[in-house]
Design a protein that fits this description.
The protein is an alpha+beta fold and 81 residues long. It is built from two helices and five strands, in the order βαβαβββ. The chain starts with a strand and ends in a 6-residue tail after the last strand.
Length: 81
């Protein structure tokens, strides 16, 4: 199945791309997706503990099972100002 991955703020600036299309096995989780993303974009791995993951309009955890065609947002922690 294919999912769309969008990167935001300094994570997008770090890797120089707005998004990627990723091919994953049916039943893959966010954790599986992140491992594949880190393999292609190793500069993101050091940020693993602090990133937020969104599916649609909700934040999800790493055990969330992905759906075909879903758009996943990978964001830095929310900061106030």
């Amino acid at each position: 199945m294919k999912v769309q991955v969008q990167f935001y703020a300094q994570l997008r600036d770090l890797i120089g791309v707005h998004g990627l299309e990723m091919e994953l096995a049916e039943g893959a989780t966010v954790r599986d997706l992140l491992e594949k993303v880190y393999a292609q974009q190793p500069a993101l791995r050091p940020h693993d503990k602090s990133i937020l993951i969104g599916a649609g309009v909700e934040f999800v955890d790493r055990n969330y099972e992905l759906k075909p065609g879903e758009e996943i947002a990978i964001m830095p922690p929310v900061q106030g100002g």
